[in-house]
Amino acid sequence: MDTTRQQTRRAPPVIRKEFEKTVLKNLDQRTMSQSKKNMRIDYLVHWTGESEADATWEQDVTL
After folding, report:
1. 18: which of 3, 5, 24, 28 lies 20 to 30 Å off by Cα?
2. Which pLDDT score, from 0 to 100, does residue 2 have?
3. Which residues are in the Chromo domain (predicted)?
4. Contact 57, 44 (CB under 8 A)
5. Dihedral of the CA atoms 10, 16, 17, 19 (nearest 10)?
6. What is the DSSP string of 1-56?
7. pLDDT above 80 for 63
8. What's the distance, Cα to Cα, between the start and end of the chain in Å?
9. Spans of all domains in the chain
10. What long-range pairs does 53-61 form, CB within 8 A, spacing at least 24?
């Protein structure tokens, strides 16, 4: 271990375990990819209590 390096005093990141919004339905999906290895799916999400015009694209890993 390198003892010449100083340790950071920064607080660890806060990870949310609850979503502030609830998904009403998925309106659409799109595949974002440069290659099959880096492929990701995004969903157009209609949130509960919001209009369809306020739908947002969200990554599959965040839902």
Report:
1. 28
2. 60
3. 17-63
4. yes
5. 180
6. --TTSPPP-PPPPP---S-SS-EEEEEEEEEE-SSSTT-EEEEEEEETTS-GGG-E
7. no
8. 39
9. 23-62
10. 55/27, 57/30
Helix (H/G/I), strand (E/B), else coil: 57: strand
Pair of tokens at residue 28: 């659409």
Measured in whole angstroms, the distance separating CA 39 from the mean position of its chain's CA atoms is: 15
Residue 58 DSSP SS3: strand
Instruction: Give the tens place of pLDDT for each residue, 2-56.
Output: 666 777 788 888 776 666 789 999 999 999 887 888 888 999 999 999 999 999 9
- pLDDT at residue 51, rounded to an integer: 94
- Take residue 1 and report the two structure tokens written for it: 């271990």
